[in-house]
Design a protein that fits this description.
Elements lengths: L1 H4 L1 H38 L7 H38 L4 E7 L10 E7 L5 E8 L4 E9 L2 E2 L5 H11 L8
Antiparallel strand pairs: 1-2, 2-3, 3-4, 4-5
Length: about 170
Amino acid sequence: MDDLTSTPGLVALGACALGLVALVVAIVAVVRLRRLRADQRRLLGGHGETDLVAHAAAMDRDFQALHAYVEDVVARLHGRLEVAEQRLDGALAYRGLVRYDAYNEMSGRQSTTIALLDASRSGVVLSSIHHRDQARMYVKQIHQGEGELQLSPEEEEAVRVAVNPADPATP
């Protein structure tokens, strides 16, 4: 016991204590390193990469490629949308129907005028005039709500009904 109380014995005890502390610190460091590597493998997805910087660079390249692809798809969709909008502008957007008795014969409003217009209010007005022994059909073109030829009152009414279907002046 005298050897432990002497200066060399105390130095030896201090070295042992310091060695034990270093051993505990090393064990803690190894456990933390294993946890860190397990977390890193989980983060990297087990693709064999062990470097976070390389993984981040690969993710950035993939993101840039995805971004370029999405921009390309958006540009193509924008082009297709423009074509579809142009086609829809030429489709029938407004229609109006007026029935009337053209010859005031009390025949039950057998004559009909229909206006078929696109988004720019251009199209045609079809009039079918019925008489007891004959029927006639007339077609007039409409450009931006106005007839190329003078429109009859019934044809003007059909255009007005087509453009303003909720107008209270509509019979």
